């Protein structure tokens, strides 16, 4: 899977989003309730039926070391991406679905990836300006640039250190690739687990409508990848909550993470 290099070190400026399939975002728009419900609460039967969705394990094991934790002491999941990035666009659908199994997002807004990139105008969300609450983990998201590649958010010193340490070969295929995910310094992922091409030309509503059908290619990609991400988070949290982390297909996927058993 191709990855996109990012240069970090900007000051925060602002964000933009959109609501129609292929527009230029000009104003903030919250995610419609129907779309939000579909992506944050997919049916358990569908998640189980999808399994890995024919998505190859996107996570890579890091050398054994202490768990990276947030300021609240909970295991830290770091996401670094950018609004223009089509691979980030695809990954956010899966990441929102996975993280919503452990906590709650607030203030998510619509976003469309750049028109001047591969897989142009991929409809998605942005984490800029959003918040997330969970009793199990600390999720930190940094969107470094806007849709038109203007500076947006800056990693703090800890986030920058994680990026420089683990967003490099052999842990990723390209230095500075995005999206980049660090699961408490236990696992990392770079790029999206499935191709943004699956979402091309589709509105948010149309993508969301697919998530009820396990055989849909979009559902296979989004939720198959989300199941892998869920397994990675369960590894971080010591398999908490137990009801989630012991339900199919998560234990089987967790046993395969990074090519070794937990």
Question: Any overview of this molecule?
Answer:
The protein has 262 residues and is of the alpha+beta class. It has one domain. 29% of the residues lie in helices and 15% in strands. It is built from 8 helices and 11 strands. It has a 5-stranded mixed beta sheet. It has a two-stranded antiparallel ribbon with strand order 1-9. A two-stranded antiparallel sheet has the order 4-7. Strand 10 and strand 11 (187-190) form a beta hairpin. Helix 1 packs parallel to helix 5 and helix 3 (86-99) crosses helix 6 (217-237). The protein is globular and about 45 Å long. Residues 1-27 have low confidence and may be disordered.
Write the layout of secondary structure elements.
Layout lengths: L3 E2 L27 H8 L3 H7 L9 E2 L14 E6 L4 H14 L4 E3 L2 E4 L10 E4 L4 E3 L4 E6 L13 H10 L10 E2 L1 E4 L3 E4 L13 H7 L6 H21 L4 H4 L4 H5 L8
Descriptive key words:
262 residues; 29% helix; five-stranded mixed beta sheet; two-stranded antiparallel sheet; disordered N terminus; single chain; alpha+beta
């Amino acid at each position: 899977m191709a990855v996109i290099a990012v240069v970090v070190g900007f000051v925060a400026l602002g964000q933009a989003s959109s609501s129609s399939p292929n527009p230029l975002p000009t104003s903030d728009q919250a995610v419609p309730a129907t779309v939000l419900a579909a992506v944050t609460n997919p049916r358990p039967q569908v998640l189980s039926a999808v399994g890995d969705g024919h998505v190859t394990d996107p996570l890579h094991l890091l050398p054994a070391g202490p768990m990276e934790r947030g300021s609240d002491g909970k295991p830290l999941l770091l996401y670094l991406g950018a609004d223009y990035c089509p691979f980030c666009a695809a990954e956010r659908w899966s990441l929102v679905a996975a993280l919503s199994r452990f906590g709650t997002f607030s203030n998510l807004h619509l976003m469309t990836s750049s028109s001047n990139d591969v897989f142009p105008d991929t409809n998605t969300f942005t984490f800029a300006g959003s918040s997330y609450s969970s009793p199990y983990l600390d999720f930190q998201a940094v969107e470094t640039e806007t849709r038109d590649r203007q500076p947006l958010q800056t990693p703090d010193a800890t986030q920058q250190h994680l990026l420089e340490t683990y967003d490099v070969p052999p842990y990723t295929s390209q230095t500075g690739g995005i999206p980049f995910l660090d699961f408490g310094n236990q696992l990392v992922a770079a790029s999206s687990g499935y191709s943004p091409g699956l979402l091309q030309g589709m509105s948010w509503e149309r993508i969301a409508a697919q998530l009820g059908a396990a055989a849909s290619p979009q559902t296979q990609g989004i939720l198959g990848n989300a199941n892998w991400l869920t397994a990675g988070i369960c590894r971080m949290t010591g398999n908490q909550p137990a009801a989630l982390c012991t339900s199919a297909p998560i234990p089987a996927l967790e046993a395969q993470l990074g090519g070794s058993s937990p």
